[in-house]
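[SOLVED] Need 3D model of a two-part complex

Original post:
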Amino acid sequence: MADFALLKSLSIISPARIILLVIDGLGGLPDPKTGKTELETARTPNMDKLAAAGICGLSDPVGPGITPGSSPAHLALFGYDPVTCNIGRGVLEAVGIDLDLQPGDVVARGNFCTVDKAGLITDRRAGRISSEKCVELCRLLDGAAIWNVKVMVRPVKEHRFVVVFRGEGLSSELGDSDPQQTGVLPKPVTALNPEATATARVANQFLAQAKVILAEHSPANNLLLRGFSRRPGWPLMQAIYKLTPAAIASYPMYRGLARLVGMDVLPTGSTMEEEFRTLALNYEKYDFFFLHIKGADSAGEDGDFARKVAVIEELDSFLPRLTPLNPDVLVITGDHSTPALLKAHSWHPVPVLLSSPWCRPDKVKKFSESACIAGGLGRFPAVEIMPLAMANALKLNKFGA
Amino acid sequence: MADFALLKSLSIISPARIILLVIDGLGGLPDPKTGKTELETARTPNMDKLAAAGICGLSDPVGPGITPGSSPAHLALFGYDPVTCNIGRGVLEAVGIDLDLQPGDVVARGNFCTVDKAGLITDRRAGRISSEKCVELCRLLDGAAIWNVKVMVRPVKEHRFVVVFRGEGLSSELGDSDPQQTGVLPKPVTALNPEATATARVANQFLAQAKVILAEHSPANNLLLRGFSRRPGWPLMQAIYKLTPAAIASYPMYRGLARLVGMDVLPTGSTMEEEFRTLALNYEKYDFFFLHIKGADSAGEDGDFARKVAVIEELDSFLPRLTPLNPDVLVITGDHSTPALLKAHSWHPVPVLLSSPWCRPDKVKKFSESACIAGGLGRFPAVEIMPLAMANALKLNKFGA
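Solution:
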């Protein structure tokens, strides 16, 4: 789907509320000893009750066989086509540290690097300096004003950082300064079209100033920029769905992604207790909540089957907190699968549970991968979850006469 | 799908016959007391027998979450992409009264309206005059010849009517005369491009003459036109499928839609008895029949669960009439769901049953929403029903070598 024009023309404002509860990395693979996945091993009486009364299915985040990263997987959940909705490398890095980008900002991903006396690159990652060192160096470079452009430099991790150029009329049509090899000089930033000439000049002036500042900080005695990009011009959720959406997520990446599609990112602690409290406290102010539970994915990536089971069980124990809120639509799903056996994201489709007074219940009695195969939602692309949630909240008008 | 070029290149003429039996608004939601939908409540021994021998599934008329109107839902059943195959407002209104439009006709939707002495609109709907009055006024305006253009004026209901301009070289690129507000003058019809100038002049001349004729018929003392459009230039079913198609439908809307895609609309009475007799009488002359059963949708819209059940049971009792005809493919489905609980069209997918000697039977033994979840057709877009029917009639050649 992702037919924004169609959804825009059909969506209406109403008091009905939707909660999209995303258990990161939910889908799994069976433990060979038991034949049961993490979700199937977990005791989940509350999700099972919801599954019995609701409708279930399996969704493909990007497409069958495609293992998604966190950003495309979440974009699909928000109803954005994960293949065509590209995010530039610089913006992705900024999103990952939850930077609040303005529409005109130009962002690049930065690496501290080591250069020799002739200026030739000897290490593109400056020996992977510590994250503390990165913070210190970014502080030295942050806040420059080059002509009318403000330059913000924010640390990410180890040698990685983000540079934001903020000013009027900037262009992101710029070539990288990172030559992606050692033994050569960093490249000057080039304008990829005439409109970008002034911005290229700003970037090169910044690089020249930074080189001077960093000279005495070997091994991080220079820097490289790549992936110049701008905040994508996608329509926001407010425009497509006429929702007032909020995000409750403790990891910066998910907060950043939620901002890109127009959500208010609510301040919250990182435990489930705190996230569910944030939801209850803000419940009157919004009609859409994206609630992100991170622990299952981390456990899967660590190959820790038992911990992933425990995270799912803990989450299940919080679901009765939603009962007094009585959302019109509750969707419980994952952004992708992260089987502990693979210790990585995977392509396996993700269980989806939709609970609403207007869903057509199926015969699924337990929320699990194998039960969802026979669910009434069938197997479907994750971008269709939002239209389904909107329909079940009676927030979509009839199409055509 | 709706890949007309592909289907055109593969379809062949053969004596095999297809019957597409559409139970309008077939899909439902369970009665909370019994947990069964209308279709699940109905005793349908004949459909169940067909389901057991055939293959079943669930189809989405437009897409998951999208509630379709009757026209997009039927276009999808005929294999036309319901989102890209748009029908102009004027044509839709003409279709709704089963007007036989020629390809060059320009059609507008009309409203009788009330204007004051200064000509300002005081009521855009002329106090919703009676349908009888509408017929009388349309007769006064019908049949004008303006230069070489014949103008037909046909009543719809209350203040609504249709104007057809028939002549050479007309254009529908015209702005509305309806300003969509009161307290202002009707707008002159404007040409939206230079080719439409002559047609705009004809339309304005018609409006001027009509104003004189209507002057003494207050509250319907003027008229407003909008939605100028032409019969869509879609390929007809004859071209795509090489079929000789016929429609058996008693409601004007469905007859009109069938005409738009090239079907011969057969004269018929409105009862199931009469529709099935029309089918039998014309069975030798066509190789495709669209048979439309309206009652289930009306009952659903009225919120009358029991009446919808009764309509489905009545229809089931007529199915043995098809046995002697021995169609090569019989498809039984709905255009969309109309759950009595919602008293409206809905987004829920629609049960589909395909019976043919060449289908691969599944384990579905009963024709119902919940049984179809496990059907061999899976969950699929309604536009794929026609290619499936064609294939099962052995009317599609192999693609590629």
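Edit: Residues 197-214 of chain A form the longest helix (18 residues).
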